[in-house]
């Protein structure tokens, strides 16, 4: 996997990102151009118009991220709105999806399973990231540092061109992401990938939770936030952000549906396996006496319910597969990343602060 290092002010970080990952960014745009057409019946011109609708509010609440996106655009020699569209890809894909009644195929393109686990001595934050195999070549590891500021250094796995994703920072604060498909957008709030970046720039779990709840999130999703003291799940919709605390076994488990009270949200049926995977990861984690990186990794290899298991396999076009697994030990500030399905991974990467 390509690892890039970006340092400096916001524009300089973006410029390095754009230059170093230019080909992957171009392919990522091509991937989403096709996905949005299939799942949302939106041509790229309509996607760019949708992206432009976020600009004014983001100028007010997240101007530094727009500066970085402008740097990515300049570095890759790609129009600014194309990069902004990548960064609101979840709002488009999971809130503007087409109805099956309109004759559009309802493609189940996700399936992530995440886990926060606190033991007597260590705090783990982990997930399988499941998405279409076609996007796998466009993943990168991005290292970001802001010398002269109090913003922690960041290491994250992201899709090329996207400024916030899954990873951790030099303060031991990390985040994972589960897609949730529900209707409704509030464009005065942060798109979820911007919210992930805000978490990664936080100095503690408490600060990260406050930042996300204060800004709100434009659409649906679940952000799992952790540090050395444990984890907090944040179920996000356009109307609210609600906390999912650790249970009596020190766990926060999540898949791809809202588990907290959500009678005010339009969440059409989506992934039938989501409730099954949630029950399965709770079952598996209840059996671990002394969790380690290796024993937690074994959980994410689980294939019960194959191919729509925790460890997913793409068996036909558009179906998701596990593209990477990340096991973060936030106490020791170490992350283990494997590329591909955890039972047949092609590369193992160690990140540490």
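^ structure tokens above, recovered residues below v
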């Amino acid at each position: 996997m390509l690892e890039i290092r970006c340092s400096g002010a916001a524009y300089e970080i973006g410029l390095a990102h754009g230059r170093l990952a230019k080909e992957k960014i171009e392919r990522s745009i091509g991937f989403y151009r096709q996905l949005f057409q299939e799942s949302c019946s939106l041509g790229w011109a309509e996607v760019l118009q949708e992206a432009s609708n976020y600009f004014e509010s983001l100028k007010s609440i997240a101007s530094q991220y727009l500066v970085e996106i402008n740097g990515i655009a300049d570095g890759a020699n790609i129009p600014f709105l194309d990069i902004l569209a990548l960064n609101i890809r979840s709002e488009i894909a999971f809130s503007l999806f087409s109805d099956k009644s309109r004759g559009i195929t309802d493609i189940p393109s996700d399936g992530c399973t995440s886990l926060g686990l606190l033991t007597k001595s260590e705090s783990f934050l982990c997930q399988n990231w499941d998405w279409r195999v076609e996007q796998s070549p466009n993943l990168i590891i991005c290292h970001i540092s802001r010398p002269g500021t109090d913003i922690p250094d960041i290491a994250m796995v992201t899709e090329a061109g996207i400024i916030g994703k899954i990873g951790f920072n030099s303060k031991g604060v990390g985040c994972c992401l589960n897609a949730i498909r529900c209707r409704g957008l509030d464009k005065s709030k942060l798109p979820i990938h911007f919210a992930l970046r805000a978490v990664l720039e936080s100095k503690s779990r408490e600060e990260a939770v406050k930042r996300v709840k204060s800004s709100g999130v434009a659409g649906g999703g679940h952000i799992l936030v952790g540090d050395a003291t444990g984890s907090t799940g944040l179920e996000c919709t356009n109307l609210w952000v609600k906390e999912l605390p650790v249970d009596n076994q020190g766990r926060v488990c999540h898949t791809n549906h809202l588990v907290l009270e959500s009678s005010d949200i339009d969440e059409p049926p989506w992934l039938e396996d989501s409730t099954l995977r949630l029950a399965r990861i709770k079952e598996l984690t209840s059996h671990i006496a002394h969790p380690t990186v290796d024993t937690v990794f074994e959980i994410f290899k689980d294939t019960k319910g194959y191919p729509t298991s925790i460890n997913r396999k793409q068996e036909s076009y558009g179906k998701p597969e596990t593209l990477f697994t990340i096991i973060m030990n936030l106490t020791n500030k170490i992350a283990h990343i494997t590329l591909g399905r955890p039972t047949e991974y092609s590369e193992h990467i160690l990140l540490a602060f």
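Residues 113-352 form a domain with the Penicillin V Acylase; Chain A fold (CATH 3.60.60.10).
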